[in-house]
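tl;dr need the bound structure. longer version: we got a ligand (coenzyme A) that a collaborator sent over and nobodys looked at where it sits. i said id run it. heres the input, straight from their email, havent touched it
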Amino acid sequence: MSIKTATLNGVATIEIARPEKKNALTGAMYRAMADALDAAKADAAVRAVLITGQPGIFTSGNDIEDFARRQPGTESPALQLMRALMACDKPVVAAVTGAAIGIGTTLLLHCDFVYVSDEARLAMPFVGLGLVPEFASSLIVPQLMGNVRAAEKLLLGDPFTGADAVECGIANAVLPAGEVVNHARRIAERFNALPPGAVRDSKTLMRRARAQLALETIAAEGEVFGNRLRSPEAQEAFSAFFQKRKPDFSKF
Ligand code: COA
């Protein structure tokens, strides 16, 4: 079982649990997370959603073997998760228990509250994999922090700390590793005492101005991303990852 779900005290928890592969996300895992978000949205007893990982690792991002195997023209399985996340009108709280790489950071841009362990590192290393930013990160990251800091994170793929994430507006707070999940859960449980209709309408209003542009950006990114997955640059990057060596882009 690599996605665990449970609902307790008004909070639907989605736990990524594939520690042997550093919580890398497969198609089946994306689908399980999307289904859990849809179920949480439909369940009146759920007032908020909590997404979390394992001690030391939130997620190492998309399973790179899945990337390498993706057939041309097939829809990204991650898109199902991101659509469900963007359509979720209940508050979504992320407890970033450790490294959050690729979509591990991108999905945080679509959560409402983000708490990061003091041991966590975040990164969006798409360019180094011969790919491009996805799921509206090419729009939201420059909006949040300006072009020059976005370039460090999206063009160079530099990793950054939880404190940087707070400073850039990606996260609310950094917490000691042993406290991050409980803190995030306490924030999620606060919605049990708030009127759910007003919360839902307010969240929808807060996202209204950006919603259409985000969807258009996701479509544009998705087209380029799909082409880049089959590029010689990406193939070199994937081979290098599995051969545990540095990629060589000198021939391109
Ligand atoms: N996809 C597939 N397998 C992955 C993976 C991923 N995204 N991330 C880690 N794994 C696998 C490794 O291949 C390794 O498998 P093995 O034991 O069969 O060799 C196992 O998980 C442990 O990973 P390892 O790299 O040995 O752990 P580490 O503690 O040294 O490093 C990370 C952890 C997360 C920093 C490192 O695994 C990493 O950089 N992963 C890739 C991140 C990435 O580029 N994601 C895609 C973003 S678009």
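gonna send this back to them w/ a short note. DSSP finds ten helices and ten strands in the chain.
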